[in-house]
Amino acid sequence: MISVTHLGFPRIGARRELKLALESFWKGDTPAQALHDTAHGLRERHWQLARQAGADVVPCNDFSLYDHVLDTAVLFDAIPAPYREVYDENPLTGYFALARGLQDGRRDLHALEMTKWFDTNYHYLVPQFERDQRFVLRGDKPLAELAQARALGIRARPVLLGPVSFLKLGKRSDGGDPRELLDALLPAYAELLGKLKAAGAEWVQLDEPALVLDLDDDDRDAYRRAYAALAEADAPQRLLTTYFGGLGDNAALAARLPVQGLHVDLVRAPQQLESVLPLLPDDRVLSLGVVDGRNIWRADLDAALSLARRAGDRAHWLAPSCSLLHVPTDLELERKLPAPLRHWMAYARQKIEELRLLADALTGSADANRDLATAASARAARLASPLLRNAEVRKRLAAVEPAMTRRASPYPQRAKVQAQRLGLPLFPTTTIGSFPQTAEVRRARAEHKAGKIDDAAYRTFLENETKLCLREQEALGIDVLVHGEFERNDMVEYFGEQLDGFAFTAHGWVQSYGSRCVKPPVLFGDVVRPQAMTVDWTRYAQAQTQRPVKGMLTGPVTILQWSFVRDDQPRADSCRQIALALRQEVLDLEAAGIAIVQIDEPALREGLPLRRADWPAYLSWAGESFRLAASGVGDATQIHTHMCYAEFNDIIEAVAALDADVISIETSRSRMELLDAFVRYRYPNGIGPGVYDIHSPRVPSETEMRDLLDKALDVLEPAQLWVNPDCGLKTRGWPEVRSALRAMVQSARGLREQVAAEVD
Ligand SMILES: CN1c2c(nc(N)[nH]c2=O)NC[C@@H]1CNc1ccc(C(=O)N[C@@H](CCC(=O)N[C@@H](CCC(=O)N[C@@H](CCC(=O)O)C(=O)O)C(=O)O)C(=O)O)cc1
Ligand SMILES: N[C@@H](CCS)C(=O)O
Ligand SMILES: [Zn+2]
């Protein structure tokens, strides 16, 4: 009989309990035990919730205090040398030092590099290996979570990041290939599997999302060797999970690895069932990922049912396509969503209920079949709803001409006009947009939302924050100012709230990294900008200062990528609609006298399809959308863009084709490594390679930033170089921001003086 399971539950808590516990612990307000108690309670609650929703078996070790990739690294003792002492002294302090850096007077440790988890908005910490890395089973987290579940009488399946994906997600400090470490790693995995079996695990889930990527011969060889070695271990039955896409040309490889079960993503790649079924050896069962773990729409249960029927006896589990980490916890909490939308949606808990329904329908339950019909009609109602379409938008989009996606003049010509207009010094200093979203700012917003303070009082509060922020920037000597984004809850949600076609939620929290969460807006219909969204605030800020203030927008690709988007039309069409709305905003900013407009596209890279063959089409519509938003302005208006957490080597042409006058990029955690692509490409426009890591509370020194600037200047023309942090400062506190920016401005001044002296 088919069972219901899932591959991982959101960890943060429906009311972000983990976030609150973490931040309170980091501040020193609560002891470690309080954090462990919250974690313990959340795990139990999530298992119970999934069980009540209808899961027969639930995973364990899907929980993490910060990140599951970091958990895997410390589990196998892949702790880089500088962190060893602190980890040995106190594993929890060591764990958070790896995640967030540590400056305690005695030690000054950077955080590990952080990057995107495949094509999601979740960030993982990049494991850092040595050339002669040794792995031992150091931790017992999977065993402890299994024991916790078993003590509650819950059948749990421990989840481990599979060895090949784990190595492929890491980096070696000598630049070598982490896959060479496989033989050193496998005994530690085998030992753990043995212990899990001894502790009563019937199955273990080995996540190998890398199996949906383009693999080379060495990868394939690594997979064969790894799973052959694990097959030798005295292990529980192994469920190999693949997700975020189809196996494609890796189908035969995955199907024949010596495991007992294979999970396939049948939401992103429903057609792969046909190719996988004939490849499966007789003794292999399938887990069918038939409910979307990446979006919030109710599933197409009829289609899911057909897939399950087609899989026949091979179908052992019904599951979401991937871990539910990427969706919010429980739609029950969403009391204020407009009624039709609420009926159209499903969060983690509801997705498990959908799977239960499917499993029951497969056994012929009459109740289930009736509920199935209700679910199908809710889905059909969404697809047929007039709320989804706006004829005017469609007409305007059809009238877009290619010339609207190109700036009128080439960059060198624009640069001259802009230099004359702006009169900036060499190495202009700026920031990326947001300034600290202090407890006070968030409280004021919460009170305004709750009706405790009126519009006028909220406006006055924000004006004051903005004014103070501008004064701070002036005092620090920054050249191009920002208004600070105090009016924004989030750089995407804020725009979603102002555009028709989007809905926003109250409890749709999804973990982005560590304790940081986002509430992706829900794009359900055609996009219309009923009125200007940022012009008032930007005009207000510009009126407070003689220095240029950048207008600050989130780009179309990023708004698309960080929203839950409609699935009834191609993403490209939705993106163009957003771009058209933003184009109007850019023009309104220009008309209000704003000389610089930054259009952030931090998610451009993350949106890349996982298979290279799909890249050109994506890069074409994504780039075109950005340019549609940006290109309406005259030569004298300077367009900036900003990207963080991205490798640029393989998309540099597409980045260059955006033709932004200035791009700021995250480079400090990789010590300017990410600049290489721009150098190789001879990127001609302005670049601000981030000189300090804003995701860590650590304050960098002037020398450190100067060192990075010198590195940048080794390879860039002086006229190209801008000086800025890696990303926005919203997560930081004012004291650290002041110190860091003071040092940043000093480092730029020092560089200016040196260049001036050299010219003399
Ligand atoms: C740049 N990044 C972003 C990504 N994705 C986005 N959608 N947005 C991004 O900015 N992806 C890549 C990176 C990831 N980085 C971050 C950085 C910081 C955060 C973050 O700080 N998130 C906040 C939540 C932001 C938010 O929506 N805030 C709201 C609600 C605030 C709140 O919690 N209010 C309380 C009441 C407060 C009080 O009474 O004092 C409540 O509602 O209970 C707001 O400001 O209004 C976070 O706290 O995690 C995310 C990603
Ligand atoms: N303007 C945004 C970009 C973040 S990627 C900010 O400064 O927070
Ligand atoms: Zn950023």
From TrEMBL:
Q: Where is 5-methyltetrahydropteroyltri-L-glutamate bound in this sequence?
A: 16-19, 116, 121, 516-517, 562, 606
Q: In which pathway does it act?
A: Amino-acid biosynthesis; L-methionine biosynthesis via de novo pathway; L-methionine from L-homocysteine (MetE route): step 1/1
Residues forming the Cobalamin-independent methionine synthase MetE N-terminal domain are 5-311
Recorded catalytic activity of this chain's protein: 5-methyltetrahydropteroyltri-L-glutamate + L-homocysteine = tetrahydropteroyltri-L-glutamate + L-methionine
Q: Which cofactor does it need?
A: Zn(2+)
Q: Which residues form the signal peptide?
A: none
InterPro entries named among the record's database cross-references: Cbl-indep_Met_Synth_N (IPR013215), Cobalamin-indep_Met_synthase (IPR006276), Met_Synth_C/arc (IPR002629), UROD/MetE-like_sf (IPR038071)
Q: Give residues annotated as binding L-homocysteine.
A: 432-434, 485, 600
Cobalamin-independent methionine synthase MetE C-terminal/archaeal domain mapped to chain residues:
427-749
- Which positions bind Zn(2+) 1? 642, 644, 666, 727
Entry keyword Transferase: yes
According to its UniProt record, which residues of this chain constitute the active site? 695
Q: Which residues bind Zn(2+)?
A: 642, 644, 666, 727
**Top-tier EC class:** transferase
- Enzyme Commission number(s) from the entry: 2.1.1.14
Q: For this protein, what does the record note about how its cofactor is bound?
A: Binds 1 zinc ion per subunit.
This molecule's function is given as: Catalyzes the transfer of a methyl group from 5-methyltetrahydrofolate to homocysteine resulting in methionine formation.
Describe the family membership recorded for this protein in Swiss-Prot or TrEMBL: Belongs to the vitamin-B12 independent methionine synthase family.
From the Swiss-Prot or TrEMBL record, give the protein name. 5-methyltetrahydropteroyltriglutamate--homocysteine methyltransferase
Q: Which organism is it from?
A: Lysobacter antibioticus
